[in-house]
């Protein structure tokens, strides 16, 4: 029995799974919330971690602990065994991900203290995208400023994009090295990645997870000049602008709700705001599909994953409608079949294999961590 304990630590929560790598199933999964809050279950992450491990009981055989870490900066291009130096570097990278990395470090410290005898492995959301070529990761700003402050495109959801692009090749029974793939990860957060022969060559998120597609509450792509305009004309400060773009924009900003199911329901009843928001959402996705086909020089596989991508046939169809001239077709019967496993939604023999592949970031983290056991 090879079990890996997978930890996703937030500022006031610990999400965890005990993954059995022989069956590839979660034996236990759970969430401790409101850590450190009055009436919450745990005073701090150390206490929370102890509760989690107590709940797992004594018959566990944990061979490694995999930690989801949001930002790996320019240094981490693959899963990394955590020692004091690596822990300190993840903490230092908090400058690039002030909401996420400090919380990840709290989880790492608590878990290392509670389970000192097994390898702890950091699996970074950015690592898969470290293969981006300079022309794809460079922002055209003053090079010295960029270097000093580590400003470049990093990309996120890397664990998901890596897992899904590999699973797609397995499903198709074709060598990953031979495939040009676009992965659409459409969840509450959303990103697109161009994968060439198993390597990420372009991705829509940037220095932070704000860039790219229209998301639940994030704007995605925007002219940076909008910020100067609002600072000058509306007197908005940095924190207000951060909140505006990260928490009050996207579907929420356009319609008043950030949940795609609600937006779609409203659209189905003819709500004009919802219809307009869906049009913007779709426009942005198609913009990236076109750009990435050009960048890849062709396309073999297009994959949908995450909450919206896995579950919403209508939005998948809308996103791809009219792209038949690129070899992208959808078979409505296949598309509407609901299932929890990888499947085709393009017709038999279509030039581009359009797939739905459920993502499983915990399993991927567990696999990568187990390599250090
Ligand atoms: P996260 O990005 O938080 O990991 P998920 O990948 O689980 O999220 O996706 C969550 C999002 O998926 C929610 O915003 C929800 O609205 C959306 N979603 C889930 N099921 C459907 C569905 N059937 N139709 C449209 N949206 C859906």
UniProtKB/TrEMBL annotation:
The record marks 157, 218 as: Transition state stabilizer. Coiled coil: none annotated. GO terms for cellular component: cytoplasm. Keywords: ATP-binding, Cytoplasm, Kinase, Magnesium, Metal-binding, Nucleotide-binding, Transferase. Substrate binds at residue 68. Its EC number is 2.7.2.1. ATP binds at residues 15, 185-189, 259-261, 307-311. Catalyzes the formation of acetyl phosphate from acetate and ATP. Can also catalyze the reverse reaction. This is Acetate kinase. It comes from Homoserinimonas aerilata.
């Amino acid at each position: 029995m090879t079990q890996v304990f997978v930890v996703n630590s937030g500022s006031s929560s610990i999400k965890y799974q005990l993954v059995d790598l022989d069956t590839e199933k979660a034996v236990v999964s759970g969430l401790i919330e409101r850590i450190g809050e009055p009436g919450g279950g745990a005073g701090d992450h150390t206490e929370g971690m102890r509760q989690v491990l107590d709940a797992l009981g004594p018959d566990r055989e944990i061979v490694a602990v995999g930690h989801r870490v949001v930002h790996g900066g320019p240094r981490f291009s693959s899963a990394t065994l955590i020692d004091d130096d690596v822990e300190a570097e993840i903490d230092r990278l908090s400058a690039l991900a002030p909401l996420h990395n400090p919380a990840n470090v709290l989880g790492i410290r608590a878990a290392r203290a509670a389970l000192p005898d097994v390898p702890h492995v950091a699996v970074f959301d950015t690592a898969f995208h470290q293969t981006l070529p300079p022309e794809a990761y460079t922002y055209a700003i003053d090079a010295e400023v960029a270097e000093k402050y580590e400003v470049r495109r990093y990309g996120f959801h890397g664990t998901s994009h890596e897992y899904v692009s590999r699973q797609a090749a397995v499903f198709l029974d074709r060598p990953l090295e031979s495939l040009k793939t676009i992965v659409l990860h459409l969840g509450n957060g959303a990103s697109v990645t161009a994968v060439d022969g198993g390597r990420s060559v372009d991705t829509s998120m940037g220095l932070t997870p704000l860039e790219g597609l229209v998301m639940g509450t994030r704007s995605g792509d925007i002219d940076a000049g909008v910020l100067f305009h609002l600072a000058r004309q509306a007197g908005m400060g940095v924190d207000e602008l951060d909140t505006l773009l990260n928490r009050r924009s996207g579907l929420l900003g356009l319609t008043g709700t950030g949940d795609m199911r609600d937006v779609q329901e409203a659209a189905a009843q003819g709500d004009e705001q919802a219809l307009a928001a869906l049009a913007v959402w779709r426009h942005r996705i198609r913009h990236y599909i076109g750009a990435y086909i050009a960048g890849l020089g062709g396309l073999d596989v297009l994959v949908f994953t995450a909450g919206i991508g896995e579950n919403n046939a209508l939005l998948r169809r809308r996103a791809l409608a009219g792209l038949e001239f690129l070899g992208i077709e959808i078979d409505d019967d296949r598309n509407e079949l609901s299932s929890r496993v990888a499947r085709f939604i393009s017709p038999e023999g279509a030039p581009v294999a359009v797939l739905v592949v459920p993502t499983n970031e915990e399993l991927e983290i567990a696999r990568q961590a187990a390599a250090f056991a």
